[in-house]
């Protein structure tokens, strides 16, 4: 019985590993090359038209894809509407860009009905959003199917601005992403925004005595207090990278080095020995070398993230309307 049990476990491990490989292999470059040749160009032109009228849509689309992948995998579940769906979760507050995905989907349905998944549109739109913000571009493997489940209760595992580095590492590792991916992907905050309510406690009430977070540089603290007064509007939006909020660059990492990180979870990357080393490399002032390295690493990390728990033909579908299951 003992030997049989051992062999059984061994066989099960092989099956699980092979299953994981099959799932990852379900994505491939140029998946729609014959079924819908203009798919990627249609998504690109749709994102571009929205970006031209509102450049801040870029971080919105990037965050939307991130939230989608961290809950139920990259399956478009964040797009589903409903009282108990992911959009209803507190962690989903402020999500935007849904109209861009809906527009792209409508255009694709008129050309290639029921072919291109909403999950793939999200992944492609996130890439295009970064590219339009003077950031890197990368080839997005496609072939995802849309999930049928969307629960607000499952959004609790999303990273929070209050998370320590240890908790951030745990949450990323649970999705198959390592510390290198964590630091690299957080670099997306170079074009993001946040509300005063998510960091104002660092300015006025970081400790029970009402002190400010000592890791914030004095000059930046003054600047933030001006932007977010103690009794001001908590929903006021502030750029996460005040230095160059519209450009996808390494300024975000330089901010962490200089004590100018806005979210506590971001600034803490400087205090952890493992993440500190990566932040230093990305923040290097050597022009044309490590800056380009971040561009390259970000694309690779995005490809890895966008492959989290993708749905296949067996457990997914291609939604006709992204906000509801078929």
3D architecture notes:
There is one protein chain. By secondary structure, the chain is mainly α. The chain folds into 2 domains: 38-157, Peroxidase, domain 1; 165-305, Peroxidase, domain 2 (Orthogonal Bundle). Helices cover 46% and strands 2% of the residues. It contains 13 helices and 2 strands. Helix 2 (39-53) packs antiparallel against helix 4 and helix 2 (39-53) packs across helix 5. The longest helix is centred in the N-terminal third of the chain and has 24 residues, at 2-25. The protein starts with a helix and ends in a 21-residue tail after the last helix. Residues 1-24 have low confidence and may be disordered.
Q: Whole-Å distance between the termini?
A: 47 Å
> How many runs of DSSP E, i.e. beta strands?
2
Q: What would you call the structural class?
A: mainly alpha
User: Count of helices?
Assistant: 13
- Going by CATH, the architecture of the largest domain would be Orthogonal Bundle
Helicity level: 40-55%
Nearest-integer average pLDDT? 89
Low confidence ranges: 1-24
Could you say which overall geometry the principal axes of the C-alpha atoms support? Answer: globular
Describe the strand arrangement of the main beta sheet, using strand numbers: 1-2
């Amino acid at each position: 019985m003992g030997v049989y049990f051992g062999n059984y476990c061994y066989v099960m491990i092989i099956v699980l590993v092979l299953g994981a490989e099959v799932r990852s292999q379900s994505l491939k470059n140029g998946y729609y090359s014959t079924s819908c040749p203009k798919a990627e160009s249609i998504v690109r032109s749709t994102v571009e038209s929205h970006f031209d009228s509102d450049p801040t849509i870029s971080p919105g689309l990037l965050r939307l894809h991130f939230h989608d992948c961290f809950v139920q995998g990259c399956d478009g579940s964040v797009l589903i509407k409903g009282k108990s769906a992911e959009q209803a979760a507190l962690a989903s507050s402020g999500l935007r860009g849904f109209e861009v995905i809906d527009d792209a989907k409508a255009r694709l349905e008129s050309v290639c009905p029921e072919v291109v998944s909403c999950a793939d549109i999200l992944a492609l739109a996130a890439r295009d959003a970064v590219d339009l913000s003077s950031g890197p571009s990368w080839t997005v493997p496609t072939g995802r199917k849309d999930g049928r489940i969307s629960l607000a209760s499952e959004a609790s595992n999303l990273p929070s601005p209050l998370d320590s580095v240890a908790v951030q590492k745990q949450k990323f590792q649970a999705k198959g992403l390592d510390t290198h991916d964590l630091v690299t992907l957080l670099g997306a905050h170079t074009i993001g925004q946040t509300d005063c309510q998510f960091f104002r406690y660092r300015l006025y009430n970081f400790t029970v005595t009402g002190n400010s977070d000592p890791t914030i540089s004095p000059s930046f603290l003054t600047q933030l207090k001006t932007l977010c007064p103690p009794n001001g509007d908590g929903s006021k939006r502030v750029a996460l990278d005040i230095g160059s909020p519209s450009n996808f660059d390494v300024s975000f990492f330089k901010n962490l080095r200089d004590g100018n990180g806005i979210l506590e979870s971001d600034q803490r990357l400087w205090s952890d020995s493992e993440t500190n080393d990566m932040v230093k490399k990305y923040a290097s002032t050597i022009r044309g070398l490590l800056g380009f390295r971040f561009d390259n690493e970000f694309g690779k990390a995005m490809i890895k993230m966008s492959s989290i728990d993708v749905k296949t033909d067996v457990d997914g579908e291609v939604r006709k309307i992204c906000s509801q299951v078929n």
